[in-house]
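Entry:
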Amino acid sequence: MLKTMLVVVVGVCAILGQAFAYGPPPCWQTVTPQNVPGFDFEITSVVQGPDKSGLYAYTYTIYRLDQGFVIYRNLSHISFWFPCGPAAEKSVLNGIYGITVTCTDAGSCPKTEMGGTNGMAEPVMDKDCKFFWGFKLDECKDTEEKLFLMPNLNEISFPQDPYDPSCTITFKSRTAPAWGKWLVKGGDGKSGLYDAGDIRVPNCVPAVDVGNMTWGAIKVIYR
């Protein structure tokens, strides 16, 4: 029995070690903003913690820059890249169900995806880096078919203009922040229109010393 438990613990550590080996694909590292008029976004991040429970609170705010009377373009989705490969979903407490999205535009971004083991496709990337791990916001249209995060065209952007729409994303994590990427994809999701930037996201679930822990405690940490 003891031998079996040791083998399983070693297996867990080996899996985590593989997760730590994942780093940012070069094509994600070099994604830069296009600054296209009418498709220029900002995403800010605030990380608080850890609290007494050891949890960090992540809050993102998404808004479109108000550039006055220009042609504003619709978007397909918003991607958030995490640096932990297949282990990314473990970085968010309760996984996809722990992510809350609230938009001031009624009905915006109703669908949240997480990559799980297989990751998610990002059509704008090169074929060698088309898949990534993290989460996506899809179907960013409201019930009146207005453009997502359409500003009021006074050339003053949120948060200086509180009447411009925005979205807030919140979740909790057991891990401290690392640098990741955000990418907003335009149109049908297949064209080359995008905006992007750096953002703080959860790092890999840390390894722990299991020498004095019970198997039940180990399963709670890595479930």
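The CA atoms of residues 92 and 173 lie 5 Å apart.
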